[in-house]
Specification:
Shape of chain C: globular
Strand content of chain C: under 5%
Largest interface: A-C, 38 and 38 residues
Oligomer: heterotrimer
Chains: A mainly alpha (492), B mainly alpha (500), C mainly alpha (493)
Number of strands of chain C: 2
Structural class of chain A: mainly alpha
Largest sheet of chain A: none
Strand content of chain A: under 5%
Number of strands of chain A: 0
Distance between the termini of chain C: 35 Å
Shape of chain A: globular
Largest sheet of chain C: 2 strands, antiparallel
Chain lengths: 492, 500, 493
Amino acid sequence: MNHSQLFLQLLPEAVLVLTALVMLGAAVATGRKPGKEFSAGIGIATFGLLLAAAAMFFVPPAGESSTPLLANDTLARIFKVVVLALGLFAIWLPLARKELENPGEYYALALFALTGLMLAVGSNHLLFLFVALELSSLSLYLLAGFPRTARASEASLKYFLFGGLSAAFMLFGISLLYGVSHSATLSGIAQALEAGQPSLLAMTGLAMLLVGLGFKLAAVPFHYWAPDVYQGAPATTVAIVSAASKAVGLVVLVRILQIGFANVAGSAAWGEMTAGWSLWLAVLAAVSMIAGNVLALAQTSVRRLLAYSAIANTGYLLVALSANGPKAAAAALFYVVVYGLATLGALAVTAAVERDRGDDRISSFAGLIHRSPFQAVCLLVFLTSLAGIPPLAGFVGKFALFSDALAEGGGMGFVWLVGLAAVLSAVSLYYYLSVLKQVFVKPAPEDGFQTRTLPPTHVLNLAIPALLLVLLGTLPSLLLDPIARALCETLR
Amino acid sequence: MMLPIVILIPLIGAILLAFSRGMSVKNAGRIAGGFAIVSLFLARPNCEWSLPWMPDADIALRFSMDGLSFLFVVLVSLVTVFAILASILKGKGDRAYFALILVLQSALYGVFTARHFIPWFLCWEMTLIPAWLLIRLWGGPGAPKAALRFFIMTLGGSAFMLVGFLALQLSVGTMDFDALGKLAAQGELTGALAKSFAFTGMSGHSLLTVVALAVFLGLAVKIPIVPFHAWLPAAYAEAPTPVTMLLTGLLSKMGVYAMLRIFLPVFPEVLPSLAPLLTWLAVATVLLGAVAALAQTDLKRMLAYSSVNHLGYCTLAIAAVAASQVDRAAMSSALSGVILQAFNHGIIASALFSGIAILEIRSRGQRGLNDFGGLRAQTPVFCGLFGIAVFASLGLPGLSGFIGEFLIFNGAFAITPAAAALSVIGLLLTAVFLLRMMRKVFWGPLKPSLAKWEDLTKEERILFGFLLLLIVVPGLFPQVLLHFANPAIVELLDLLRPIP
Amino acid sequence: MTPAWTLISAFAAALIVLLLPARAAMASRMVALVASVIGAVAAGSACLAKLANPAAAPWSFDREWIPNFGSRFHLAADGLSLTLLFLTGITAIAGVLFSWNIEKRPRAFFAFFMTIIGGVYGVFLSRDAFLLFVFYEIVILPKYMLIAIWGSTNKEYGAMKLTMYSIGASALILIGLVAAYAAAGATSFDIAHLAAATYPSAMQAWAFPVLFLGFAVLAGIWPFHTWAPTGHVAAPTAASMLLAGVVMKLGAFGALCVAMPLFPQGFEQYKALIAGLAVVGIIYGALTALSQKDLKFIIGYSSVSHMGFILLGLAAANHWGLRGAVLQMISHGIIAGLLFGIAGRVVYERTHTRDLGELGRFDLWKSLPGAAFAFTLATAASMGLPGFSGFVAEISVIIGLWQVYPWLTIAVAAGIILTGVFSLRALYRAFFPEREAAAAPPPKLPPLTWPEISAIVLLLTVSIAIGIYPKPWIQLIDDGLRSPLFQSFLSLP
């Protein structure tokens, strides 16, 4: 293929990069006027993201001109749009002006992070994946520590140290796999593993790869960075981490396992357990769910609660992946989108409450239904979706996850994992309800505080995800079908 | 269709009374009396009505009025009217009071005409609440406790009855009295019980005995039979006198009727073995009632124990019927006696308690034996009319009280002579305390507090007049009553034929 | 009017109420009332239509929904569902009437209330397991809100306990359903399809208890019943009526129409245990009610005891038993509504106490004779006196049980007697206390309002109607029991 076709393949990412550069340039050019810079930053970023979404239409469909590094199949396209959308919502999160000294740089870095994520979604080449993920990770480390507060700095440092370590693992694993299969593409690895027994080296490589991705997804025991980052970083960063980054991490994991390592899966069904990544994921899922849900029960800070909720949700996702089946994987991909929307929304409301009341403790939400009914109702939608209550998308997602996982998990023996997931998911209602209790049941605080009027971006930011969650809850096929078909196509 | 209407008319009256406000006591009483008496004229023997509930389990609301039921329905109407009249005279009661009496009347109609356990039990229980409320809310100082004891003991007895019948339903598949009677006549109940309850390892005969005793317990509390009479004296004494008329005149007859309609036809297979128990309990009731009455100084309590005594004769007769199953003449005599005694005692007791009510009206609530004296001179008409009632209670030939007792003893002596002989003592004792009452109230020097007393007013004379009419006529012409009772007696005797 | 109107009216009302302006209390009540009436009329007319024309095909609504895991939007109503729909409609009307004077945030109250009603209608109408589960779960959050915001004693604790038990039990149901789906070929969640599949008995040995327990917890099976008295006491009157009267029946319905048909062999293994637990529940509930001093707690524990009858009927699994179970569902729904309505709304609102000793101060038979009369009738109904609906239900269960577990019948008789004792004790001490003559005269209480009277009359009429003429109800239930779902475990007669 020629360079123009290649450029078209990367058009959306190019648009984002250009937007970021423009923003950096504009920041320098306009001098340091924080107020104007802030809204300008959001505006330019919004424009860039929308342009990139439009650019998606120009990307030629897969197969016509694919390269070994890029695979713009339908799955990648869907999730690129998802990343753009989640990124847009993240950018619109209300941040306090004083949090960001250099908003232009901040939003530029955010765009870089999103670029990295988009690139990662569309590749079947391990090294390319690594580079893309590192692009996003490095941006995110900086984004986490942007405000020069002690908390943010601690968060950023932890994030960086953990991230660096896991990146090292990942690279080492990739190199082992290359050594075994003489190929860095997933299909090449699959071919190499088909012939004969998988060697110890290959499995070790896979394990190290999984460590790296586990960090990305905040699976236990690679999750230690999550609570601090969720609590210390600015809201937009957390939004990107929890929604977009997680979604991409899952897509990458699905690709790697299903394309590259399908035949070394093993089984996690009770009574028929065989070694393989299915069993490893099952164990990771179990401990993530248990740790995430149990630790969330004790939290008083909503952000940390959302962090542990993220860990628990990773557990549910890994349950589906452990089942090693296309329908389960499709359900997981559906669920991660839904989860992203819900967490984003919850973070948006939390950020608004933080701005109003000063901190993100659960008690700050008291009487929100009286202070700001719109935000309270949206928060109700988001948290009940996270808890898995119908008629919201979170419920359908979890249900689809569990039923497809059990159906494809290698027999009834898999029910131990699904059962554990169902029970822990029920437990999670407790801590979501404790927030909702403050919002709906407790009276508004006595200090006569009035919530300030909500900017239109914030209103849209809450309304659109909420409506989507309701829509997908009643008609989940709208998203589930395309994902399932795309996955089938990818795995063929 | 007549039958449900007859049963429901008093209930409709009760509902009307409940919802009308601002009515004076007298008017409420008059309306109540009107509703009470309408059914008397509408009731006809030989009609039936049935509403199936659960055909698979043979549960239906079945009511039927044969001669026996008709007699008791008439009794209910009469005594209720008299009670209402007495209440109006006393000036006691309000809308709720009369409404409750009407509800009680409907329930009693149901009890005396139901032919299936379910409607019968429903009406049986439905009498409890009005009776309890009437005693509790308009009674004397000890009324709450007395009412509660009445309620709990009766309910407890009913619970046993329910369990017994439930056992029958589960084994034989029906609780219809007539159906059960037919099955019992063929001796099938023991077999069915033995099969159903095989897991307990008891014989059919023992099982049926247990069931019979359970049912008996419920009835024994109602009649009452010693030793299940503990609720009676306090309840009768504390209740307002018109309510006591209802209690003694009607509610106790529920038990007697049930013995005839239910106990005897359904359990002939075990009656011979239960007969000795019944007999001696009857004797104990007769004697204890009479002795206790003798010891009372409160006139109401005295008459209460006298009721226990009089109904003990009914139990004696039933026990005799149970003991023998061959001597048809004696059994027929005994059964006739029971029915007559039940009807007549109802009227006579109403008359006696009306007399007490009149004493209470004049003396503003006093009713001790020693509170009065020398009234013969002051209120001669009252003395005369009340005297007739007392002699009827004694059993003077020519008045209604005689014929029932005569027939009972006639039958009982032929079957259980020892028990009958002992019961005669009861007759003698009755004479003693009744005559003593007459002497103490009406003879002797006139107490000064009574000097202003007036004789019977016109209304009171009318009340007593009707009562005495009903005492004298059946005394001279008992066929009037027996005409209705005979077919039922014949049917019952057929069922009681010894099992081949 | 098809049964779908029940669903439509309830959810539409919930939405409309939310859109009303902030202080529109009267409008929200009227909307809720109208919607409840529409629902009851729809259910009632469907019942009548079914009775008039028993051979007609049952109403059904079937649309493609989520092909990915084979779930269709499939609603249908046979005779059994119709009777339960009617119960819900009546309870909804009574609940709205008893809540007529709610002043605090009425819009939100009625929105949550109608959502629960809609969810209940949905469960009774669903023929697809996933759809049933959706409606089953929809009611969980409104339950919490109703209790936590408008409740009384210990409301937040009671609400959380009730909700956590509900969702915990739902997790078990989820596992059971998903297991059945997976084992039946992972093609469809249709209940008939899942029931027709055969499952290995090793799987049924764990799947049945999980699924059954999930439903039975909501039905108050002993020893997982403790959420019920706490929750119902904490809840406001209308919520208690709904929860004890109708929502608990969802559990029983699920056990009957989902758990038992799906895993009949599993059911056979656990039948005796279920019967035993049910009897323990009956007696335990009655004994605990006997020792309570709070009138609402007495009613709460009596609910646990009455629900035991339903589970007992299910365990007997013959015609009489199942008939009795469904009849008891209907009967207890009405009676619980009546008892909670009078105790919570009529008495508590005026006297602000539920303690038996303190209520004695008020001489309620004098100050609220209508309430005393109504509560007396309600107590009679609760005790199972013939003439009321409870009798028909209990005797059916007893006849059914007798054929399978005769020894347990004796225990049940003891339970009935205990029920009589505690019911009468409560009635006596609350309404007809013995007071010393020298005690101060009781304070005057406002008389019954028209909404209260209407609700009480409605409930009493239905209970007596069922009690006096049970034949049409039995006909409808038998029609439902003829469904192929039940043939795998239903033993004659």
